Description:
- The complex is a heterodimer.
- By secondary structure, chain A is α/β, with parallel strands linked by helices.
- Chain A folds into 2 domains: 5-214, Rossmann fold (3-Layer(aba) Sandwich), CATH 3.40.50; 217-297, Alpha-Beta Plaits (2-Layer Sandwich), CATH 3.30.70.
- Chain A is built from 12 helices and 13 strands.
- Chain A has a 6-stranded mixed beta sheet with strand order 5-6-7-3-8-9, sandwiched between helices. Chain A has a 4-stranded antiparallel beta sheet with strand order 11-12-10-13.
- Helices cover 59% and strands 6% of the residues of chain B.
- Chain B has a two-stranded antiparallel sheet.
- In chain B, helix 1 crosses helix 3 (50-62), helix 1 packs across helix 4 and helix 2 (39-46) packs across helix 3 (50-62).
- The radius of gyration of chain B is 19 Å and the shape is elongated.
- Chain B starts with 12 loop residues before the first helix and ends in a 6-residue tail after the last helix.
- The model of chain B has no long low-confidence stretch (mean pLDDT 90).
- Chains A and B meet through helix 6, helix 7, helix 8 and helix 10 of A and helix 1, helix 2, helix 3 and helix 4 of B.
Amino acid sequence: MTPAISVTGLTRRYRDHTALADVTLAISSETITGLLGRNGAGKTTLLRILAGQEFPSSGSVRVLGASPAENEEVLRRLVFVREDQVYPEIKVSQALRAASWFYPNWNCALAASLLDDFGVRANKAVKRLSRGQRSALGITIGLAARAEVTLFDEPYAGLDAVARQVFYDRLLADFTEFPRTVVLSTHLIDEAAALFEGVIVIDRGRVVLDAAADALRGVATRVSGPCLAVDALAEGRPVWERRRLGSQASVVMAGPLSPGDRERARSSGLDLTSLSLQQVVVQAAAGVLAAAPEASFATERSSA
Amino acid sequence: MPEMAGLDEGIPLFAQVAGRLAGEIADGGLAEGERVPSTNELAAFYRINPATAAKGINVLADDGLLEKRRGIGMFVAAGARQRLLARRRAEFTQRYVEPLLTEAARLGIDPGELLALIRAAGGEREGAWL
């Protein structure tokens, strides 16, 4: 199947810095992908280019098989919800009506029920909404558009934890009903991790990790306990992080652990904790993966 | 942290979904011939990506513990419970006895004392079994 989004050798240079450097990636259609990375890593620039709102300095960008730049054909099938979206001086209902004219798959009932879930009244002027309510409006438009390519860039400024859970639940529910290609850029990795099928981590304009989300869980283990025992277990393996306090040590070890390793750890009193997706991403953004060999990402195939 | 109905973020989610279903089959919560929850039902319950849930179901289907009935869904295969129980029994030593022995050795509890402890704990339960 052709990917919904494919980017090859994409570079975006501004006068004094390079926002994206030779980015190559492909996102399969009908998947939910997490676009992760630190502030200023290049996530927004990438999404803006995918949404046709900014142009590459070089390289190729294909969304639904064509370049999105000034391409009405593609842009009607794509929705981009950005952080702190600015609206003209209109009412919520008018914003929704305008969206309904633009997006061919627009679902009115879905929009109404989302607004209701978020507690936003349709007759209110957009400029009188709180920041969180404005984010809720953006999310409502992003989901109700049911666009084949749906891009969310940190869509929840000002939204509380309850409203964010509403967003995640409604996104999943509507995705199963109407599968589409979703890219969600977020800092709240722990919260959103379970939604992702794929994960792309960008750091300083470069892709440092592009993997199946579930394959990253347990790909590294924190080993803690007496120094000598920790060192013995970690010997000859890629280690991402090392800390020490007195006779105690704690290291993050890449690669799957064999049952033999676990037994050794247990008998020498070591504590093992698998890294969560968020912790793996933090390690990736800190640059350790660039140094680690590719092989350390071999997935541990665990059976039921 | 999101609430994923008790799933652990440090272990592949598909494997945990498969493990939970297998556990339900072994415990009789899902009887043989019964329909198992669909991919979408599992995704909504655990709040996880549907593809991840589907992969969990496929692990059990590939193992012959579930069977597909076209157009209706996945069902618990005949003999699934017995196979799962046999597997758990085989893992019992590694999962429970070995850690017990390791910890006992660390605390200096000798085998005789350990046996006595097990007997006493068993005796405290209703309908003493040892």
